[in-house]
Amino acid sequence: MFEETWRKRASVLFVAGGVVFSTAIGIQGAAADPAPEGAETHTSKSKPSWEEFLADTYKDSDGQYIVDGDLPIADIEELREFYEATPGDDDKTHINDLVANKNDEGRAKLWKKSNVGNLTYCVSDKFGDEKGEIARAVEKGAANWEEASPAIDFRYMPEEDDDCNTSNDNVLFSIEPTTTDKYLARAFLPGASKSRRNILVSKDVLSTDYSPEGVMGHELGHVLGFRHEHNRPEAGTCHEDDNWVPLTPYDSTSIMHYPQCNGTAEDMEFSELDREGVQKAYGAPEDEASPTEKPLSSLEGITGSLGS
Q1: pLDDT reported for residue 18
Q2: Where is region (Disordered) located (predicted)?
Q3: pLDDT tens, residue by residue, 14-54
Q4: Which residue in 176, 164, 266 sits closest to 219, CA to CA?
């Protein structure tokens, strides 16, 4: 492990008040604990070499590389692109911006309105006795996003639980168990191919100091397109990359902010700025909506797609 300030990275910036778009939770233990094994820490301000970075990056059982604590990278070519695009500590910008994952045109990459209202998923029977608790945590984690923006609807399909994997075309994504101790959970971003659309969850999520619904809410934030909030320079550490566009002011209490990355919330809870951010992305309830401001997901060229 090398430079702490360069890569104490988790994957939680999202589009909401304290949100930026990204993917996976590498948190283990209490908020005061150091970053977990899956979220490498470093001490100097220099960017590690490619060889050091590759050696220090966890490769999951499905062959994907895990960066920023919970963000899957498909292969070594994409990992090299990720590395090359990642600045060192002397290259920080967007000091006053909130962030959302962006596409090649530099625009926020979100679900289309027709897709975000039908985010179907299953919870694998392979969770065994813990399946009920996992399913309830997902439902509670989804509720904050759904209540903030009526356009969002995560739909549980329990009839698909006995065949819950990325090959099941009856659901948009699957929630499956993992046995690794490198992260509590990992997710995906809009635009991911069907073979990569899953949330992998360790059973340890039920026994950490973080609430299971908070962890799952964080991962579902990634599914909606939100990156880690601590990616912002205001966090003072855990800077990941500049692959985001601004949405709201910095929020150290965001559900998308890792506590060990100078977050100020003791648990992963949905904040008021999270609510504001997701409404900017996908729209607000009628009684809160601005008559002149359209959500980003409704603008041509802004939205992502389901992938294949």
Answers
A1: 40
A2: 271-308
A3: 333 344 433 444 433 222 233 333 333 323 346 778 787 78
A4: 176
| CA-based torsion, 4, 38, 231, 29: positive or negative | negative
Q: State residue 175 phi and psi, 5-degree precision.
A: -115, 115
Within-domain flag for 294: no
- The arithmetic mean of pLDDT across residues 206-229, rounded, is 94
User: Residue 30 domain-assigned?
Assistant: no
Helix (H/G/I), strand (E/B), else coil: 201: strand
Non-local CB neighbours of 302 within 8 Å, separated by 6+ positions = 107, 108, 109, 110, 296
- Please tell me the total count of domains within the chain: 1
Distance of alpha carbon 20 from alpha carbon 232, whole angstroms: 8
Residues near 66 by Cβ (< 8 Å), separated by ≥ 6? 24, 26, 38, 57, 58, 59, 60, 72, 73, 182, 183, 186
Q: What b-and-e string marks burial along 235-263, b requiring 16 or more CB atoms within 10 Å of the CB?
A: bebbbbbbbbbebbebbbbbbbbbbbbeb
Mean pLDDT of the chain: 75
H-helix or E-strand spanning residue 282: helix 272-282
Beta pairing, strands 185-186 & 198-202: antiparallel
Distances in Å between the alpha carbon of 170 and those of 137, 164, 192, 288?
22, 9, 17, 34
Q: Which two tokens stand for residue 102?
A: 């962006």
Q: What is the CATH number of the domain that holds 157?
A: 3.40.390.10
Note the pTM of the prediction, 2 decimals: 0.72
CA distance 131 to 139: 12
First to last CA, the chain: 36
Q: Which domain holds residue 182?
A: 50-283
